[in-house]
Design a protein that fits this description.
The structure is a single chain. The protein has about 70 residues and is mainly alpha-helical. It has a domain of about 35 residues. It contains 4 helices and no strands. Helix 1 crosses helix 2. The protein starts with 9 loop residues before the first helix and ends in an 8-residue tail after the last helix.
Length: about 70
């Protein structure tokens, strides 16, 4: 790992530390970087597109009752 000095948002770092139980700022920054790098690109998401829809939404919705009941 390389050592880099950066200015970071202290509140955001503290929020990451609380939410994910990170004990150090370094751990929080590395976690945030890894999670950001893992986000799927639009092309990757589109490549996961299924084979299509064969159902009838009107038929499915007819058994749901009035929208107020949702």
């Amino acid at each position: 790992m390389a050592r880099t000095n950066i200015d970071i948002d202290e509140e955001a770092c503290a929020a990451v530390m609380r939410r994910y139980g990170c004990k150090t700022k370094r751990e929080a920054v590395n976690l945030a970087l890894r999670r950001t790098a893992q986000v799927m690109t639009l092309d990757e998401a589109l490549a996961m597109e299924g084979t299509g829809w064969d159902g009838d939404l009107d038929e499915i919705r007819s058994g749901m009752g009035a929208p107020e009941a949702w």
